Structures are given as C-alpha cells and as structure tokens.
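Reopening closed ticket. The problem is back. First fold of the pair:
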Amino acid sequence: MNTALRRLASITMVMFLVLLVGTTYVQYVSASSLNNDPRNVRTLYREYGKPRGPIIVGGEVVAQSTPVDDPYGYQRSYLQPELYSSVTGFYSVVNGGWGLERSANDLLTGSADSLFWQRVQDLITGAQPQGSSVELTIDPAAQQAALDALGGQQGAVVAIEPSTGRILAMVSTPGYDPNTLSTHDTAAANAAYQELLGAEGNPLSNKAVQENYPPGSTFKLVTAAAALESGKYTPESMLAAPRLYTLPGTSTTLPNFGGSSCGTNDQTTLADAIRISCNTALAGLGADLGDDAIREQAEKFGFDDASLAIPTTVARSTYPTDPNVAQTALSAIGQESVRSSPLQMAMVASAIANDGELMTPYLIDTVRTADLDVISQTDPSSYSQAVSPDTAQQLTDMMLSVVQSGSGTAAQIGGVQVAGKTGTAQTGVDGESPHAWFTGFAPADNPQVAVAAIVLNGGDTGSEATGGRVAAPIARAVMEAVINQ
C-alpha cells in the first residue's frame, strides 16, 4: 500500500509541477505575444476602443480612425485608398495589419516605448489615450504621377531624395481599397480579403519593396561600378563586344539586343557599352572581374541585406553566392539568379547621384502626439559609401549618355539633364514577356530625385517591351513631378 501511495504522490507532484510550469510559461513567457495576437478579441477591443493615430502625407490625412456605434468604438478609414494602399496597407479586425499599419502599429496605437511618458500623463490627467500621428516622407505629386504613369499595368515605382534617403513615392499596381478590409462586418471583410488574394496581379503584395525581380541591364551599373572601383578600368577602357558571347565553359551563346555587335571590330568602350546596353561586353567584363568583386560592390549598394526596413519590411535583393564563371557573366548583366526590388535599384541610382554615398531610405518623417508635440523625427543617416565620388561622376556621365543618345532617350526632360539606365529582363519562364526597367536621377548636376520603375512582363506592350520604351517614360513623369514643384 505504501508503494502505491508513494507512486500516486509522485504522479500528483509531477502533474502539479507541469501545471505550475505551464501556467508560468503562459503568464510570463507568452503573455506579451498572446496579449498582442491580433486574433485576441480583447486586444482588438482595447486597440479599437481608442483613436488610432492618423497617417499623414503632405499635411493631409490619408488614414484615420472615425467613431462608430458598435462594440469596437472606432473604425479605420482610408482617403484616396487606391493612391496610398501600397504605403498604408490596411488594419482589419479580421485579417490584422498590413504595410505601414502593421510595421508602425506601436506608434499608431500609442504603445511604443517612446510614448511611455505620454501614457503616464494620460493616466494622471484621465485623458483618453490616443495613438500618435505618423507623418510620411511621400510627395503627393510624385505619388500621383507614378500611379498615373503606370496606368493599368502591373508594376511598381520608387522615388528617393538622394541627399537624405527620404522616399518620395512608392506605388505598386494594381492597388486596392483598404476600406473593404477595415469594415467591422467580419463576413464582408473576409470575403474582400479572399477576393484580393485571388485577384490578378496580387494587389496585396507591395511590388515596390516586398517583391524582387531579375533587374536585367539596370544591374550593369553595379558591374560598371565594380570595374571602375577596381582601378583596372576607366570609361574609355576597350572591351570585347562581339555579336555573340560564348559563356565560359559552355557552348551557350549570349546575343546582344537586335543581334548585332556593339562596335567597330567587335570592340567598344565601357562608356559606350553602358550607353547602348551591350550584353556581350558587360558579360565578358563580369567574367573578368569575378563574382567576388561584383558581389562586394552589390552589397555596398544594399544587396543581400535582410535587415533593411523603411519601417515596412523590404524583400532582400540577392546576388548569387557561389556562381561559376558562366553564371557570373550572366549575373553581370542582371540575369541568372540576381534579384532586386524596385527600392534596391532606386538605391543604386540614389547613391550614384549623391557622390557615391548611399543614404538609408526611410518612409516616416515625423511622429507626433495627439497634441502635436514632436515625439521623434527621422534624421538622415548614411548606409554606406557605395563608390568613390570619382566613380560616381564617371557613372553619372555614362548614364547621361544613355538618356541623351542611348537606350533611354524616352526619359529626356526638356531643359533638364537626366541620368539613367534601361533594363529589359528575361524572367526565366518560357512564354513570359520580359520585365521593363528604368532607373535614374535628375537633375544630374543637382539631383533632387532618384527613381526606379518596373513594368512586369512588358505591360501593355508585351513581348515587344523594352525598358527604354515602357519604363523610361514612367520614370520621367515622376522626376518631372518632383522637379517642377
């Protein structure tokens, strides 16, 4: 009997121990995550029971909380939803937060550490707690120009102020109406979400920062930068530029656009190779430089950085880790497994525009309390010295020639010097039309805006698309909108 009692006592003690550990884990270890889980109805009631801070662009509210007569108390509403959906995202009682509504949630709800003393003050005075207002760097004119220029095509545009890193425009098409997701009618909100998930063009995905694509010939700027930084090449260096380039170690040949050679006697200068976007010259240059040199240069521009956030999470742009020589040659022209977000290519152009210094891109300018007191203001910060000032000037001169007399003439702006680079990127999927790219900046002698534009699968032009024909006019419209203010 004593043995049985001891066993029962031991089992009971183990059960109590398991219960104690489990309770401790739930109450202390998991408390924060459980409390902040968007599926937690009490969390939703708590958050919706007080005004969520507004999101402001150019002094105008684009997202706000309005009082409603239901258990939640307030409902999120979006003004000009199609124009700013790629920036604001949405906040939903059913599907949680997305975009800036998610990444800046602690500021918008007033739960950020920086708002601690404001919460203490509200507690003492009895004032109703409110979220902070978040003022963005977006330029309304540039944002509108980007949306209008993209039209009904699937694609994205990012514009950056080179000297600061301020994001002036961020548009992804097709967009969507966040108001259909923020409704408190849970059945309607869920139906709208499911419809968007299955919609053509994946509207919920912010193609400007959350997706990456083969950058095509826009990546030739990175390869040219690596060559110039090596000290072994100048813009006048002669490169082999045959009609066909046989990838090292293979029998596969790489053609130029149009199938011709790029210069007299199958040779051209580095500057002219960039101007006319010569595949064979840049692929051969990439093979000579080697993958380490190109990767190191790409990383200085921001490639392979998984931590970048604006504060919205940014998809990592990638350069292959261990390519063979043939793969390095293809990577040098932005193909193989090189992938870039539109933000990343705007960062490349921005660094070149800013004497080689890449500024960290950011979307939130100022955070204020409900009483308009400034809580925080973003100070521009340097991300890296991507290239030397001399290299930046040499690249700028090459990019000027691209727009003046090369593949990017459609980006020309009367009376303004525009520097740019086109790209027409094969997707690697049989039967798919290429992506059309353009990246550049203006004015070249006093840069105010750097931009990257992509139109997926050629847009309305389809298989006939080129970056110069399709994407360059979109970038031009955005640059004009910034310059003409």
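Second fold of the pair, where the issue appears:
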Amino acid sequence: MRSLRDALGQFATGVAVVTTAVPHGERAGVTVNSFTSVSLDPPLVLWCLSRQAPSAPLFLRAGRFAVNVLAAGQDHLSQRFARPAPDKFAGVPTRPSPYGLPILAGSLATFACRTVTTYEAGDHRIFIGEVEHFHREGGEPLVFHSGRYRDLAVAEPVMERIGA
C-alpha cells in the first residue's frame, strides 16, 4: 500500500481546503488534493473525503461546500485542516460566502457550491457540486508532490503549435 501511495504521489497537485457550515453555526474544514473541474456547462467540480472523516456527516448534512484553493505559503493552513482538532477555524481569518460558507482569507480562488450528488468509492466519498459563486485572486499556488510542499519554478512560457 505504501508503494502505491508513493507512486500516486508523483502526480503533483494543488492543495485546497474544503469548508462547510450548517445554519446553526457548526463548521467543518478538511485539506484535499482531490479537487478537480468536471464540467463548465453546468459548472461542476468534485473532491473526495474519507468515509471515516469525523466531518463527513456534517458535509453530507450541509448540502453545500466551499473550495478554498491555497496559495504558496499557506502550508500552515493545509496542515491545520489536515489534522483532527476541536476547532480548526480558531484564529484563522475567514469571511462568509454569499451562502454563509467559511472562506479562508488569502485563498487564490474560492468556489461556493451546492452539493449535487455524492458517490461511495472504496474508502472515500466523492462529492460533486455545482459552482454557484466563485472568486479569483491570483498568485502562486501551494503545490504538493512526493509527500512535500513545493515551489513552482518561474520560467518563460513555452508556446508550441499542435500540428506545426
């Protein structure tokens, strides 16, 4: 199992924190690298959560989630939301989305979503959500590769024509 995990870790990913809240104020957040776009029309995204995660029932009950794409230098937030804690949000600057979901300050991009469906897949649950609101700040992303956070090398863009 460890060798499979190491092989999968060769695929560099961005890092996001997915957050949710229910009307009476209970909040949850979890670090993921499984975030991806599914469709532009309608605008759909997906992410995966361990079926054993303590926050799984709240994400299912809430019916909405926000994806916070982390910026370079926000590895402390990635680590904070990756570990169990009584209040992962304590001391973390947030603002509410138009739907009351906690948005992490300094995120490169945020996507407020309505959960469309979920699927059980092995030891995880796949959440598919329709993007109802998004915001983009821009900047350098937090990148994870081979079990470590990485910096992107600044390079000149390479432009090639396909079929040229």
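Update: turned out to be a display glitch only; the data is intact. Residues 69 and 146 are 19 Å apart (CA to CA). The mean pLDDT is 89. Please close again.
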